[in-house]
Amino acid sequence: MKEQLEQLLAAAVAQLQEQGTLPADISPRIQLDRPRDKSHGDFATNLALMLAKPAGTNPRALAEALIAALPENSLIAEANIAGPGFINFVISQDQLLEQLEAAYQDAQVGVSAVDQPQRVVIDYSSPNLAKEMHVGHLRSAIIGDAVARVCEFLGHTVIRQNHVGDWGTQFGMLLAHMEELEGNELAMELSNLETFYKAAKNRFDESPEFADRARELVVALQSGDEKCLRLWQQFIDVSLSHCQEVYDRLGVKLTREDVMAESAYNDDLPQVVEDLREQGLLVEDQGAQCVFLEEFKNKEGEALPVIVQKSGGGYLYATTDLAAVRYRQNVLKGDHLMYFVDQRQGLHFQQIFTLAKKAGFARDDLQMDHYGFGTVMGKDGRPYKSREGGVTKLADLLDQAEARALALVQSKNPDLSMEEQAQVAKVVGISSVKYADLSKNRTSDYIFDWDTMLSFEGNTAPYLLYAYTRVMSVFNKAGVQPDSLTGEFVLEDERELALANLLVRFNEVVHSVANKAMPHFLCGYLFDLAGAFSSFYEACPILQAEDDMVKQSRLKLAALTAKTLRQGLELLGIETLDKM
């Protein structure tokens, strides 16, 4: 609907250009928004205000000309001018009814596929395998997963890449500690990676002999020593198993096949440096090999270096990331590379993207974007930590979420069996943690608050999960299947119209999530949809409707609401429940 209206406006602009009312050399960006005062219409645009100056005319006069130049259509019921030149549009009810029916019948709930599907390579989660995943890994994993799901839903080919950290000096320390342990003792120690890491770190700090051995093992590992590689692989396998357990609990679509670790690029790193040297981009600075990009300068106006090889010969994140860009373009054949990494890495990725294109590692038309995110904060305004003051392991956080949700379920619905309570607690607990994060603006920090995220009031997972079960209860009482209704939509009550107008916006919202990589757009929409259904449900009797035609229409509105809620939550990676 929005796209159709934008096309009509584009045609009106073209006609005014042909007439000479608008300059022929401008290509305005036509954008429609939802008016704040919904009584003014369904869509609004400030196009006349934007074009008035280049046209040398009054905005309201130009708005009138734009309306007059709109092609004949059955989409617009009314167009009016507000304020200094805003144009408001009211969509015809016939169009609304047509879109409702199409969404009801469609497996995609009325969401259109993209016109030009791409191969989208999405880099997300990417934990350091030296330790177990902690709360700091939450945002990358679930935001990246939600955007990946949305891109797939819209028809893109999505290639997930889990760029785990499995290389570097810290692994020498871990290998040295593994050498000291044998058989069952080693297996037992590795069962808790956090404890194992701390023990290795203590040995490194306290024993000069151990520290020397750790440094020797780093060199041996990087030189391909067979014993070191065998120990290293054993550690990596255990660590990846821990990660996979967390991904499975979170409902994140990452598998071992998606892992493309730092070590996978080792063989290409010398070639990256050599290729930069051949192109005359390398400069030696204090023994290190660097590229100075004039696009990035410090406060003194000096170009900042991208260091690709340390003075001792070692490589850095920049070297690996450049190799990864080449691999994702040349081997994975990516059209769009998306990186979901902490926003503090913003400068790093801008430098990598710029250098990759300057060095010819990336085509000019290869799209590369870093989608940064804020930090999970505690109520004290600092990065979230456990009660003991340490970093909270993600597995422990999920355990606590399920335990809190179980207590909540038992108090709300003690009639459920123990098995049902456990299942509901699992879904509610995990969903609450995920939704509390996804519902916040990706670029902002947010406060982690158990009481808020597990509340049945407000924009929370429990509220939406309950809203879905409430809709489905209508069909349980009616004894009919939501997808078997045959009546037509009839919209008379203002609450029916409000719900209908929101339902047909699903397509627009899903596309906006993909375009901006902002899952909170979808969360806000689903919250509004649940609220609109609640208002409709209270004001418009469904099973006790005055006649069968109205009853069938209201049942279809309820069915489409349930279908939209379920699909929207699935795109966020959140499972729904039949009862709570």
UniProtKB/TrEMBL annotation:
CDD domains: Anticodon_Ia_Arg, ArgRS_core
EC number(s) stated in the UniProt entry for this protein: 6.1.1.19
Listed GO CC annotations: cytoplasm
Signal peptide: none
UniProt catalytic activity: tRNA(Arg) + L-arginine + ATP = L-arginyl-tRNA(Arg) + AMP + diphosphate
Biological processes annotated in GO: arginyl-tRNA aminoacylation
Principal location class: cytoplasm
Locations listed in the record: Cytoplasm
Annotated ranges, domain DALR anticodon binding: 464-580
Motif 'HIGH' region positions after renumbering to this chain: 127-137
Domain called Arginyl tRNA synthetase N-terminal: residue spans: 3-91
Domain of life where this protein originates: Bacteria
Swiss-Prot/TrEMBL keywords: Aminoacyl-tRNA synthetase, ATP-binding, Cytoplasm, Ligase, Nucleotide-binding, Protein biosynthesis
SUPFAM superfamilies linked: Anticodon-binding domain of a subclass of class I aminoacyl-tRNA synthetases, Arginyl-tRNA synthetase (ArgRS), N-terminal 'additional' domain, Nucleotidylyl transferase
InterPro entries listed in its UniProt record: aa-tRNA-synth_I_CS, Arg-tRNA-ligase, Arg-tRNA-synth_N, Arg-tRNA-synth_N_sf, ArgRS_core, DALR_anticod-bd, Rossmann-like_a/b/a_fold, tRNAsynth_Ia_anticodon-bd
Enzyme class of the recorded protein, top EC level: ligase
One Pfam family it belongs to: DALR_1
GO molecular function: arginine-tRNA ligase activity; ATP binding
Subunit structure, interactors included: Monomer.
Family: Belongs to the class-I aminoacyl-tRNA synthetase family.
Annotated protein name in UniProt: Arginine--tRNA ligase
Source species: Pseudidiomarina insulisalsae
